[in-house]
Amino acid sequence: MYREFSIPSPIIFGCGAISILGEKVKEKGCKKVLIICEKAVEDAGIIAKATKSLDMAGVAYAIYNGVIADPPDKIVDEAGEMAKREDADCLVGLGGGSSLDTAKAAAILMTNPGPVSQYICALPMYVDTKAPLILIPTTAGTGSECTSVAIISRPDQNAKWSVFVNSSLAIVDPELTVTVPKSVTAMTGMDALAHAVEGMTNTQGNRHCDLFAIAAIEKIFKNLATCCDEPTNIEARSEMALAANWAGLAFNNPIVHVGHAIADALSINFHTPHGHNCALALPEAIAIVAPVIPDRIVMIAKAIGLSLTGNETGSQLGTMVSDAVRKLMRNIGIPSLHELGHTRETVISLKTDVVSSFLSTLCPVTIDEPTAEKLLAAVYDNYL
Q1: pTM of this prediction?
Q2: Distance (Å, rounded) from C-alpha 142 to C-alpha 97?
Q3: DSSP, residue by residue, 23-53
Q4: Using one digit for the tens of pLDDT, what is the confidence trace for 178-201?
Q5: I need a surface site. Which of 204, 289, 312, 370 has the fewest CB within 10 A?
Q6: Terminal CA-CA length for the chain
Q7: CA 358 centroid distance within chain
Q8: What is residue 121's DSSP assignment?
Q9: Cα–Cα distances in Å, from 299 out to 144, 200, 213, 306?
């Protein structure tokens, strides 16, 4: 059996790294950039840092700031149409995962006919995009800047589906995460943890990816709470930015599994933040796979600092690690579905969405409807 490990594009990491954007755009021979972002990122003054760099390099730009959480296909179409209207020859995704995913998907429309929905399918496809695409995260969460996948909502299908594209460069500047609110810091950090854990516990496990996953898990457990409590702690912010990036590398090839299938079902039906949903699903995803891949769970347990005797069963390991994850969630203020007003019955009703997700097929345990129902019940019951 063989596995492939790949990095979609070069990565520039460090405080102040956004200042190099204009230079890198110019190196690619581009004349005009379309910056794709959320309005909140523009309001926080982060876009101004990007445009200052572009101005210094003499590169023209336009800004599309209409990105929303769990971006639907129509948002991607709007961004793609604006890129053509502005004669942009380079896209810059700047913001949280939603902005980066929108930019990725909009890159398809630079050289392919729309609408983008024809490329966003239940079984993900790869589109050989040509336009230069630079991705700059402002949260330490999705790792989308170093993965090939874009996650886009299809409201017509009541689903979140994926597409794989090319990217040109990732710029990770920890200073851009300092203004992120505590709740967003917490949720995006848990998203990164889910990427690392699910990336090394699915059927496509990759030993190269394991290195990044374990290192990311260790950094997240050491630094996420500090980032939540001390938002201007640049050392902790840098460690979390690095952890999120490494977690992205950890799941780029093997992808994720049933935890994200659950998270997507919650997102599309409850419209709760993706990172929040990943957090809620992660302990149960760990618990269900632990008996069949205990060696993987041992690695995770050691990375988060648990003391092991070496005699634990897979189920016991799953319980220990899941409990540690829930403890972290409580420490950083992740609310339960019950606290948000959702009922147990409504949560369990999402079982069909979980089973139909492509991601569930990557779980080392078969996810049928009875199993999905038990998982969803546990998501609700075990974190109240």
Answers
A1: 0.96
A2: 6
A3: HHHHHTT-SEEEEE-BHHHHHTTHHHHHHHH
A4: 999 999 999 999 999 999 999 999
A5: 370
A6: 42
A7: 17
A8: B
A9: 24, 10, 10, 10
